[in-house]
Each structure stands twice: as structure tokens, then as C-alpha cells.
């Protein structure tokens, strides 16, 4: 009996598989631990496996889906923490598959191939998948929600959208875009979509509020409202335009072609996301990842329209050449300047130092970009379970530096800081996560680890207290 596998003869599908494999080869070959808030989630996952809970036992600034997923992953694979780095890569591959199917339905397989390639090899995706943060899981769930909405399964689309919200609240800006589209096209469908969101999101949040009360409300909702402006948005948008300008231009060009009605949803969603980022005080480059799937659809439609009248045989070859031209600059720049940036090259050395200079009962504290990872590897506890030490938690008023310092005094053995050293090896600044007077007067700078390549700092330093 012969099994028919028509997709083995589908050149578009096979090329799409080749694109995914190329993406996986590039990304997996560059995997390594980096200075990032991903290390917060790794350590929190370990605490959950030990029976502790976010909001009650430690501060966590997002809804619980990602952190419990991380704990589940650690439970399955144990000490192989590096495997957690694969999660954002897999999430993006899944998103690209759903994009392929969505665009294939709207146009054809070739245009689906274009959209998926533009998505996977956008500079935003190439760089931000180096970090196991919640953005890619959130985006994946939003794209899946779009897929079911496109197939008129509105309630199920809402359920998936609720999972995106329970991963990161900023999924709401994309979901509002989907709602605006439904409001214009089908109000009955909008009600089903909202109901799908409500049946999951509301009960889960009510349960969390009942369990953790103000702790949940303050960390997940109030904290984000209290945030002040961070990195310059002008710099973020300028950097985005510098390396994804072709994707942006292709997307904008889609406005000038006919049949824009079938692109109404990605138009509205892109505009909604962009407007939010324009007015919200505190955004980061990785947040732009939420917009990339919709830009990829719009960009693919432009290439589709520009090449529509070319003969099928020649069109495939021409489009492959166009894609190669489009993705080569972003890929080369990523590999040359960003793949190795912020890598922690001394994980073993610093872990050994912590083990040799503290007892299992002693605690450590420090920069959220590295301390949780070292605590995880050295099997040491973080003082007060203060894992997320982002300066924003102090600037927002959630925590107070002097109060934190008083709690640490006499209760912490090592403080790990990431900083910029001058030519004489002196720190030019210290993060305001603990009093600098405490470090300089009551602790001793005992160890320096030079950082080979970073965006801001050049060393990790350890104070013994």
C-alpha cells in the first residue's frame, strides 16, 4: 500500500521547511547564556518546583503562564537549563507556520512563504530570540488567535487570546486590534471573541486576586502603570528602522495596492500596536516583536502584488532571489555584531567562586541580569527572594533602596553587580538596587570578571560583605 505525500512535491512547502531549518541552524548555533531578565524566569521556575509561588513568595511583574511553563520545563529537563533558550526559537517557528497558513489562505503558498521568511529573518526576531523572555510566546499565541479568527472560530480565538494575556498583559494592544477589526466586520463575532477571552481571563485573575490580593494587583497591574520613561523611544525606533527598514517600506507599500480589504486586520493591528508604543512611557526593543508578524503579512502582500504578472516558473526563482537579498543584511549583521554580544562567558568560573566563598546556608544578591543564573548554578538562595532587581522596581516605588539595604545588612554574603569600570578598574557607577555606601563601606570588592562584548558595561564585580 502506497502512502501519498503530496507535500513532498510542493516546492513552496519544501522551501518553507528549508527556511525554518536555516533559521534553526543560525539560532541554535549561537545559543548561550546572556545578560538578560531571562535569568529571572529560570530561577523563579526553580523556586516554583520547590513549592514557592509568585506574588506570595517573590515579586513577579506578569501573569503566570510563562513562569509556570518555565517551571514545567525545568521539571522535565532538570539541570539542563540551557534548553530553556530554545523556547523562544520554537515559539517563533510555530508563529511562522501559522503565518504561512494564514497568508496561504489569503493569497497562495508562495506569498505564505514570503511572509514567514520576512518574519523569521526580521532583525527584531533574530536578535530578541537570543533571550528567553515572554514576548515570543505571547506573539505566538496572538498569531494562533488570529488564525482561528480568520477561520471564523471566534470563541476559540478568544480563548487563545486570553492565554496570550495571561502570559504578558501587553498582548492586549494586539488583541484590541483584532477587536477593532471584528467591530468593523462582524459585531456578533466580536461578542463571541470577547466571551472566549472572558471565560478564561476573568476567572483566572479573580482566583489570583483572591489568593494573593494586593500583592498580585500591585505587581501585575499597578507596577506597569507606575513605570517612568526608560530607554529613549526615539533611539529604539531609529534602531528598528535602521535594520528592518525594508520590511517597514514593504509594509507601507501595501497601502498603494488594490484589494486592501483582505489586509484590514494586519493594518488595524499594526496601527494599534504602533500607536500604543508611541504613547506608552516605558517600551523596549523586544516589544516590537509583537508587531512583526503583521508587518510580515503586509510586506508579503507587496511582493505578491509586484510579482503577480510574472510567469509562475520565473516568479518562484525571482522571489527566492528577492528573499535572499532581503534577509542577507539582517542575518549578517546579527551574526557579526549581536549574536555574541552580552554573552556570559565566565558562568563556570563565577559559579565556582560563589560555591567556594559561601556556605549553602548563605545568600547572595545583585543584578537581575546575572545573579539569578549564578544562584541557580551554585545552588545558593537569593537574599529575601529579591530576584527581580530591575531599577524600575525601585523607581516605581514598589521597593525602596534604603529599606532593601537595611534588609540585606548582615544577611547577605556576596553582592554581584554589572558595571562599567574605568582604566584603573574602578566602577563608574553602581546600579541603584542597594545603597552604594553599603557596598563601598561595609563590603569589599573581591572579584572582577571582564565582559568581552556588551552594549553598556564591561565587567561583573563581586562584593564580599
Any idea what the radius of gyration is?
24 Å
Give the low-confidence spans.
none
Q: How much of the residues is beta strand, in percent? A: 5-15%
Class inferred from helices and paired strands: mainly alpha
* General form: globular
Average pLDDT score:
93
The strand order across the widest sheet is 2-1-3-5-4
List the total number of helices.
Answer: 20
Please bin the fraction of helical residues.
55-70%
The oligomeric status of these chains comes to single chain
Span between N and C termini?
Answer: 74 Å
Major beta-sheet overview: 5 strands, mixed
Say how many strands there are. 5
Give the topology string: H per helix, E per strand.
Answer: HHHHHHHHHHHHHHHHEHEHHEHEE
Describe the secondary structure blueprint for this structure.
Elements: H1 11-29, H2 38-49, H3 65-77, H4 87-106, H5 109-120, H6 123-128, H7 135-150, H8 154-165, H9 171-185, H10 187-212, H11 214-226, H12 233-253, H13 264-279, H14 292-307, H15 312-338, H16 347-357, E1 363-366, H17 371-378, E2 381-382, H18 392-395, H19 401-408, E3 414-419, H20 436-442, E4 444-450, E5 459-464
Parallel strand pairs: 1-2, 1-3
Antiparallel strand pairs: 3-5, 4-5
Helix pairs in contact: 1-4, 1-5, 2-3, 2-17, 4-5, 4-7, 5-14, 5-15, 7-8, 7-9, 8-10, 9-10, 9-13, 12-14, 13-14, 16-17
